[in-house]
Amino acid sequence: MDADLHVGARVPADIEAPDRILWGLTARQVAVLAGAAAIGYLIFTAADGVLPVPVRLVLLIPFAAVAVALAVGRRDGLPLDAWLVAALRYRRSPRRAVPATPARPDPPLAVLRLPARAITDNGVIDVGQAATVLVAAGTVNVGLRTGAEQAALVGAYARWLNALTGPVQVVVSARRVDLSVHAQRVADAAETLAHPALAQAALDYAEFLLDVAADRDPLWRTVTVACTAAGQHGAAAEAMRRAEHTAAALATLGAQTRVLDGPAATAVLTSAVDPYQPGDASWPRTPPHRAVTAHRNHLEAPQ
């Protein structure tokens, strides 16, 4: 009975599609064509008396074809004029980015600037003209559900997509997991167990994790949702509101969700820019603006 149940939901394919204002063209396309028409008219009138009309029209055909291609052409979801602007910027930009500019850059070098400028304690990432908050989400095994349950899950996921009022980015990646950290946590928790048998079982489990970490290279799948809000004022609060809404909406699917605070967001970004480091993103890092402190006996030099 569930095999005949259709599982699907209607979701807009492009919620950021620009409005059509004239002859099915967007404002950007009309501006490109109008500018090209003005330039073509100037060229046509400037050649008056020098070239006959048929020759001038033939010479303007390649120019018109290029203008139409820039206006209506697309590649990988972007208009061709955007590709042209990006190519010009790339041509004018330095060829290498380094952490610091040397005294005599030859060829010219540029300082490597990452998008994240600051991370607050509650997890708001300042990316310049916008703010971003990360949401960690688990996965749900849809294949083991019945047809009615699958339809309910797809419908709930579609409701979250339709309720979005700003851009989001869903990143699914497989990362190395450091089982030694988890083993240390289990060993520390074993000391608090009252029953000796439970404590010994926890220690055996910690030893098993260390053996797996030594013999294998375990991976885990992580799902991170980046909720972004733009604007000079109120962007941080709006990004946090969207992240909380995302976490609540995905939790209704049965997935474990959590809005990442400052230390957890710092760990995720650190693992993203350096995936080959020994640690993983499962343990928090100290945010950039917070001073790293330690006990006094850890700072004293040995006698």
Query: Termini distance?
Result: 77 Å
Number of distinct beta strands? 12
Cα gyration radius (Å): 28 Å
Biggest sheet character: 6 strands, antiparallel
Class of secondary structure makeup: alpha+beta
- What portion of residues belong to β-strands? 15-25%
Number of helices: 9
SSE run = EEHHEEHEEEEEHEHHEHEHH
Helix amount, in percent? 40-55%
Average of per-residue pLDDT values? 79
Contiguous runs where pLDDT drops below 50 for at least 5 residues: none
Shape: elongated
Write a concise synopsis of the structure shown:
This protein is α+β, with helices and mostly antiparallel strands and 303 residues long.
Task: Please provide a written account of the structure.
This protein has 303 residues and is of the alpha+beta class. Helices cover 44% and strands 17% of the residues. It contains 9 helices and 12 strands. β3 (74-75) and β4 form a beta hairpin. The mean pLDDT is 79.
